[in-house]
Amino acid sequence: MRWFWVDRFTEYVAGSHARGVKGVTLSDEFIHGHWDIYPVLPNSLIAEGMAQTAGLLVSEMYGFKELVVLAKFTKLTFNTAVRPSETLEYHATIGRALDAGAQCTVTATARGVGGEREQAVAEIFFARLATGADSDAAAKGLPARLFDPADLVRWLHVTGVFQVGVRQDGSRMQPADYGLPVLV
């Protein structure tokens, strides 16, 4: 993945919920072409940040071993524009988890000089595609994983998942728990 719309995680409880943060600055190239005079973070990129926060939570629920893809936004509303110098906090919570996938509720809260406000609310369904030699995914030529395990574990370290991530019993998450390589 080339574009990351979550800078770091401030809270991560496996199988339950996560909080991710994205800072918006004038040096972000993508905000200048959206509206010429009024640079804002495009709503489509905010939706992507919401999906990345929730998708990581769902992927972890399946031990990072399943192919999990965004299937649909069942609800998505935006309330305000996000300007440079503001910070977005994404809060994702797993709702229903089924064999076919999981539904998450995600809110995006904008914080800046003007205070704090709810920027967006989404309900997102992530499909869990069966993998392995006998699966439909394998027959269709889909990869077993979206990320190389080493790339995934680097991203999890950089965004702070292993620094703040805990299981529901309070014990720390570790890359080795998921069969991921350990960075030294």
UniProtKB/TrEMBL annotation:
- Gene Ontology terms, MF aspect: (3R)-hydroxyacyl-[acyl-carrier-protein] dehydratase activity
| Domain of life of the native organism | Bacteria
Keyword Lyase applies? yes
EC annotation? 4.2.1.59
| Keyword Lyase belongs to the record | yes
The broad enzyme category this protein falls into is: lyase
Q: Which UniProt keywords apply?
A: Lyase
Which regions form coiled coils? Answer: none
Q: Enumerate the InterPro entries for this protein.
A: FabA_FabZ, HotDog_dom_sf
What PANTHER family does UniProt report for this protein, alphabetically? 3-HYDROXYACYL-[ACYL-CARRIER-PROTEIN] DEHYDRATASE
Q: In its UniProt entry, what is this protein called? A: 3-hydroxyacyl-[acyl-carrier-protein] dehydratase FabZ
